[in-house]
């Protein structure tokens, strides 16, 4: 779906980027989605399957916008085997982690590493959203990076750790700008590789 698209150098992309929002249950995935969609806090219930929204997002200077097609997939343990179906052909992954729930960071780390190691997800950029940073007992970015072992992700997987508060939207625009930049860089690299193969 995404790999055949041209690099996003124009103000508007013709096709939305396919972005999958993953993470454990209660991490704040749906809150992230609806903050982006409506620019306000929407009270949510646990996602039983998935939520999907096409959203036009301003990038940095607000002169450029691009469209994202977000798929917010339920994070309960019984639903996690389905994640693979949604990440197939994804342009990027947003992995939401609860910065306050230190007891479940190990579980989040396991799921993050599992999904990024899949053959079809090799090289897909990952935006790790450290949610609930507004709370006093939230883990620092250094603690999050170490506990999630982000440095041990595959060398082919570009990633960015973004502190955020989904309820008020803080950190989300900056995170999406980083994700967009990683996607653009990856597409450029893939195009260069194709050109080299054609020359041989």
From TrEMBL:
SUPFAM superfamilies in UniProt: P-loop containing nucleoside triphosphate hydrolases
Keywords, alphabetical: Cell membrane, Cytoplasm, GTP-binding, Lipoprotein, Magnesium, Membrane, Metal-binding, Myristate, Nucleotide-binding, Nucleus
InterPro entries: P-loop_NTPase, Small_GTP-bd, Small_GTPase_ARF, Small_GTPase_ARF/SAR
GO molecular function: GTP binding; GTPase activity; metal ion binding
Keyword Protease in annotation: no
List of residues binding Mg(2+): 30, 47
Range of residues in the leader sequence: none
Chain positions recorded as GTP binding sites: 23-30, 75, 131-134
Main location (coarse class): membrane
Recorded GO CC terms: cytoplasm; nucleolus; plasma membrane
Location in the cell: Cell membrane; Cytoplasm; Nucleus, Nucleolus
Record-linked PANTHER family: ADP RIBOSYLATION FACTOR-RELATED
Function statement: Small GTP-binding protein which cycles between an inactive GDP-bound and an active GTP-bound form, and the rate of cycling is regulated by guanine nucleotide exchange factors (GEF) and GTPase-activating proteins (GAP). GTP-binding protein that does not act as an allosteric activator of the cholera toxin catalytic subunit. Recruits CYTH1, CYTH2, CYTH3 and CYTH4 to the plasma membrane in GDP-bound form.
Quaternary structure (record): Interacts with CYTH2. Interacts with KPNA2; the interaction is direct. Does not interact with ARL4A.
Protein name: ADP-ribosylation factor-like protein 4A
């Amino acid at each position: 779906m995404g790999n055949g698209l041209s690099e996003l150098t124009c103000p508007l992309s013709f096709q939305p980027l396919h972005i999958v929002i993953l993470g454990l249950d209660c991490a704040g995935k749906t809150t992230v989605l609806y903050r982006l969609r409506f620019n306000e806090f929407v009270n949510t219930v646990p996602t039983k399957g998935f939520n999907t929204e096409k959203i036009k997002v301003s990038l940095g200077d607000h002169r450029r916008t691009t469209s994202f097609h977000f798929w917010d997939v339920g994070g309960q343990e019984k639903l996690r085997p389905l994640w693979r179906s949604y990440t197939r052909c994804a342009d990027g992954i947003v992995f939401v982690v609860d910065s306050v729930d230190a007891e479940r960071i190990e579980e989040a780390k396991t799921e993050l590493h599992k999904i990024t190691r899949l053959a079809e997800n090799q090289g897909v950029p990952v935006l790790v959203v450290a949610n609930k940073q507004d709370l006093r007992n939230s883990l620092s970015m250094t603690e999050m990076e170490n506990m999630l072992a982000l440095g041990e992700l595959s060398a082919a997987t570009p990633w960015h750790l973004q502190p955020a508060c989904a309820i008020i939207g803080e950190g989300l625009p900056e995170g999406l700008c980083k994700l967009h930049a990683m996607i653009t860089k990856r597409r450029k690299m893939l195009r260069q590789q194709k050109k080299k193969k054609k020359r041989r």
